[in-house]
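Here is one chain, start to finish.
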Amino acid sequence: MGELKQVLDSETAALTYERDADELLRLVAEKDAKVTELKELETRRNQLFESIGVNCHPQEITDFIRKEADARPLLPLWRQLLGLATQCHESNRLNGTIIKLDYQHLQQALHLLRAENKNDCNYDPQGCTTPSNTSRLLGQA
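Its structure:
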């Protein structure tokens, strides 16, 4: 989970500062590999807990670790894992927001370059407004 957090942090840097598409593609592939690995580990962990009758919900795992004397040394590691999972979720959400905003800015720039105006409209024979379907490149205006 710590390695995934590092990849997500690098992805944030690539999205905000570096603007390096090749690096971003590499990071996305690395992120996908880490997520796949974590899913496999989660499946194995869940199988182990289910085999001893423990529900795989994080709170139930926490309760089990707290109650079992032999498992108590795992509690700080379990809490660290849960904390990292929360951080990864937030980092991934942030990266998604950055991508969404970049996309919106790109769309606005393309509309500007094409001299498109969503407010442009035409009138049909009945006098009702219809969206204009004309688009001129800014250089041709």
